[in-house]
Fold each of these.
Amino acid sequence: MNMLKVEDLHVKIMDKEILRGITLSIGEGELHVVMGPNGSGKSTLALTIAGHPRYKVVKGRILFEGEDITEMKPEERAKKGIFLSFQHPVEVEGVKVIQFLQRMLKNLRGIDEVEAYEIIFNAVEELGLDSSVLSRELNVGFSGGERKKLEMLQAYLVKPKLLILDEPDSGVDVDSLKVIAGIIDRLHREGTSILLITHYGRILEYLNAQRVHVLKDGKLVASGGIELVKVIEEKGFAAVEEYGAV
Amino acid sequence: MEQSKLQEILKAGSLEEILGTAVPYPKEIELKGELTKDMVEELSRIKGEPEWMLRHRLRALELFYKLPMPKWVVGVEELDLEGLVLYSKPEIGNEVRDWDDLPENIRRTFERLNIPEIEKKFLSGLTAVFDSESVYSKLKEEFEKKGIIMIPMEEAVKRYPNLVKKYFGRVFPAGEHKFSALHHALWSGGVFVYVPKGVRIPFPVEAFFVIGSALEGQFEHTLLVADEGSYIHFIEGCSAPMYKGFSFHDGMVEIYAHKNATVKFTTIQNWSRNVINFNNKRAIIEENAYVEWIEGSIGSKITYTYPSSILKGEGARTAQYVVSLSNGPFLKDTGAKTIHLAPNTSSKIVSKSISANGGINIYRGLVRILKGAKNSTSTVSCDSLILDEKSKAYTYPHNQIDEPTASIIHEATTGKLGEDKLFYMNSRGIGEEEAKSLIVLGFISEILEGLPFEYVEVLKRVIELEFSEVGGVG
Ligand SMILES: Nc1ncnc2c1ncn2[C@@H]1O[C@H](COP(=O)(O)OP(=O)(O)O)[C@@H](O)[C@H]1O
Ligand SMILES: [Mg+2]
């Protein structure tokens, strides 16, 4: 059975149709890559799957493990096992990272605060992250790399069934990129299905991706194997359109 | 287990469970109807007061008649003083030495709020006021021996007339405005605290106020005198059960901090949403003394409160932390006033307001630095958190500086719980209500850090309930 199935998805923001019929499915344990020019609708796709209320599904549906989740609240989707790593994680003033992570673990995995505390500190150490972020306010004043690493820590703690990564590699330096890719790869090996949105092929060198989809103006214009990445990098997005959506 | 009451409060499923619902109880005396000289005389007679206090009341009554309704007061159209019981004495046995001596219904009201347990574990002393009378007042023996006085205000008027006369109505005079005049004419209940020279009280003392039924006025008076070099932390809690109709609170706090004294005064106000709450709070601060106000307004329908500090002696300092939550169709009109009269004085005002579900917060601040208050400094920060489109926050800071060597720093921020912030929390399994209480608790965490643990736990629970689907109604 497919982990995620998106069927003929049309999405509007205000009155503008951003996604214009997307069909896509990800099998259990697979890692799919979505690429495409700026403004093509990649983040819209990610946020719609996670249930952002600003993005209205006007046609089509989203199935998760066979269940229609198109109308489901975002917190319910999260509880089912969908995790979105944001392209732009927001700053939440006043809420401490540790407290936020404890709450997240309680709600998503039913782990009590005391146990969560230990799990969080162990995970930070295991992943080679800096534990000083835990006492800071959530994303407040974080650099791009710090934000992305915190998203990865969260994903690692939650152990979702489906991990959607919206440009985990943008705005991070080479060292951070390696750390981030390492965590993604680890989750992938542990069986997490992944939808990875990226601009660059770089991160894929560390990962074992199965398929690549190219999004343009709200439509998938090409789908294929990992070899598409090379074509895009050498000749640009237009060159892959001839491959067509499969 | 003794522990159980706190646990019960922390597990409460609704605000109503914490505040309780009003139940009828026997009253010994009630005064109501037109506010006349006769009524004030009757009140004074019931209390068996000395002549000077009766004269004080009658002067205040004259002022009340004369003074106009302050322009900034809204929502008091409903306030028909003649319809209110202006003095209500619950029926209490003769001598109350212990909680067990109180009538069961009154004792239960305080037990429900965990007061006796907190007293035992955390406090140096406690006064409990029910309606218009102090029904319980006790200072732990070890502190009595040090010469600390903590007794009901009425008793102090009789036992320590010279001490009381020196301060009563001198910090916050009757003629200030209509409501202070009303207060001085009708005051009843409250507590008098005196801390002798050099004495430091290690644990807080608390006064807890309950208005037991609707259509009542409560006018309690707290007078706190900290002599030279002394230290006290005074906590004031307010609660009322849910009832139909409204009640009116017009209380007063006068603080006199002598040279080198430190006074912390913390208020946690969680009246039920039927109470119109009017506070008159002021401190006079002498040389190198320090007064800290924490004014936390959670409950009530409408609240007016502006703790004020008068920095009278050189090097006097004050901090005023004002936290106001308006969740639902309620109004909090709060702020702080500071007057710098002497050189090298400093003040710090931190206001944090939270508006949700149509709630309105108004901040009114006044900082005056008079000529001659050389090198005085003031910092004011006003932060508003607005949780939805229906809710509002306004700030009206007013600074008046007549001293060229003085400085003032003013900052204001407005935070909104936007769709993206909420979605981020949602996507981590944290639903809307929980996200709101997390953000609110984070917003005020700086102020919570200054409070004792048990109070923080209860406050957290109250705020969680405010934003849970069952709570926040009243
Ligand atoms: N909040 C928004 N309001 C209006 N238009 C938006 C909003 N978010 C995205 N868009 C528009 O939707 C289109 C797709 O954006 P997005 O999904 O962010 O693209 P990508 O992630 O591929 O760069 C763009 O044209 C963008 O301008
Ligand atoms: Mg994007």
Amino acid sequence: MVQERILPQFSSTQVKLSRKEGLTLYEDMVLGRYFEDKCAEMYYRGKMFGFVHLYNGQEAVSSGVIKAMRADDYVCSTYRDHVHALSAGVPAREVMAELFGKATGCSKGRGGSMHLFSAEHNLLGGFAFVAEGIPVATGAAFQSKYRREVLGDASADQVTACFFGDGASNNGQFFECLNMATLWKLPILFVVENNKWAIGMAHDRATSDIEIYRKGPAFGMPGVEVDGMDVLAVWATAQDAIARARAGEGPTLIEALTYRFRGHSLADPDELRSKDEKDHWFAQDPIKRFQTYLIEQNLANQDELKAIDQKIQMRVEEAVKFAEESPDPDPSELYRYVFVDESKS
Amino acid sequence: MAEVLLFNALRDAIDEEMAHDATVLVMGEDVGQYGGSYKVTKGLYEKYGNLRVLDTPIAENSFTGMAVGAAMTGLKPIIEGMNMGFLLLAFNQIANNAGMLPYTSGGNFTMPMVIRGPGGVGRQLGAEHSQRLEAYFQAVPGLKIVACSTPYNAKGLLKSAIRDPNPVLFFEHVLLYNLKEHIPDEDYCLPLNRAEVVHPGKDVTLLTYSRMRHHVLQALKTLTQEGFNPEVIDLISLKPLDFETIGASIRKTHRVIIVEECMRTGGIGAELIASINERFFDELDAPVVRLSSQDIPTPYNGMLESLTIVQPQQIVTAVKEMMALQV
Ligand SMILES: Cc1ncc(C[n+]2csc(CCOP(=O)(O)OP(=O)(O)O)c2C)c(N)n1
Ligand SMILES: [Mg+2]
């Protein structure tokens, strides 16, 4: 087993977390977990198709960052996007319906697992090509600055969170966008979810300096390393970065050290990762860790958490039912959305 | 009616659209302080400032991706490819993101952006700077592709492209920037989806676009002197093709010659022939002929370069040969 990186120390006494905030984070992580488990089940039952990349194990990153944001902030994801969409507020039923290819899906059945979008929830995608979301997110952040400075809209202080993996951080678009984001002081968080693997390519076999956060300062922005299995640590780190971005102080690079509990996609036999490595990370399950924290801090008791689990399970079941009962897209609308329908504008 | 150079007509189009819509901005390499490599954005930086005329680093895929993100969130970016060929680096952003994302998002996002700049075979610029990307991009769903050819249409088309809610690839030609023409002083737009009947005739339909329009017009002089009367159509819109105008002409002439600067294989002409055969086969009195560039990287040597692209004399010959066919 490869030597694990020492996770940065984070003392939970650094944060002030209300019961409401704690339960929000918990509920969001549980939703992510149950939703993904249900996807695996539905995939094996032949209800969804294509490449389906699950997020199990990484929940603390999505919940910690996105729940620290405002509803009108922007989120940009990759092909591993279900849980980012859920954290951003896209209803579970719309995500599930999209995975089923239904007309009621958030992308109207045109997108699928790797192309989730929601204009209503400022979810910019769903990008199936590694790293291509990074420039798009950078453009959304530029837009906020433009709106504020050129259009004189003082309320345009939206921040963009751009999620991508360790593998993506070796792509040129990452470096190009770090450069431009600092150059123009854009309100953006580059959140690398370093889960140690890019399909079968181990991070240390692909990357000259494995500490990705250190690339931030090279481009003139803070780089922060955070324990991506600790939702509180992620949440606190994101809050700082968001505050800086909103105040016009520019971008932050956040490297969250995390791990995916399943194969790369549901088609991946997952043969390269060692049992030792997996066990090491399973022991840090972010949901269990946070449960313990909430109970220790008297923010919730076991029964309350159970009740949340049950509520979320029902929501996921309901999402499946909704997806199943939803109609396919209308075949006469095969060409709809290729171009803007100008007859309607 | 003032006489303007084509690059100034383009600049006026951008200037007017920026003046009346504050969400319109220009992004690209050297578009700002330098005024654009062909001076299309000269003076706009001074007038609109550094955010509306954004000088970007040399990072084509990333600044094109940024324009996508800006367009999705409500701005109307105009990307300038310093040379359209450089945008090969942004093929992914143009195809996957600008072209396809509105569809894959199920209409969640629209993509009001223009990607414009100089293309085509210039004077001994070498292979990489002599590209005709329109052929490469024509298969991408969701893109509109337009080629301007005169100061008048350059201005009217660019204004329409900027106002269009869809992504428009807008091709200019390096050798046409200094064309001069009297154009209206008042605000005008031209439709993006209409071909232009440049010269009405009845013998044969000559379909062309961009710089080849001018080669065709040169050939037309000779042909007219010799008693031929071809109809010349500038396609303007390379995608979608205007089959209404093309069809009306074919019903009149029953003969078609395509004159294009893109390469023969997989070119605009290839698509035209296939579509014409599908739609108008019964109208044709002769097989459609295409005159295209040779299927080679454009050579540097001037003589080889001129052998690579279609010359007016070849057009004259092709028309005569077609007219000599007994039907
Ligand atoms: C441009 C591009 N190249 C290759 C792929 C195939 N691919 C999909 S995911 C992936 C690994 C990405 O790893 P990482 O960025 O670490 O993200 P993770 O999957 O671990 O979340 C690869 C190579 C792709 N989707 N896009
Ligand atoms: Mg990874």
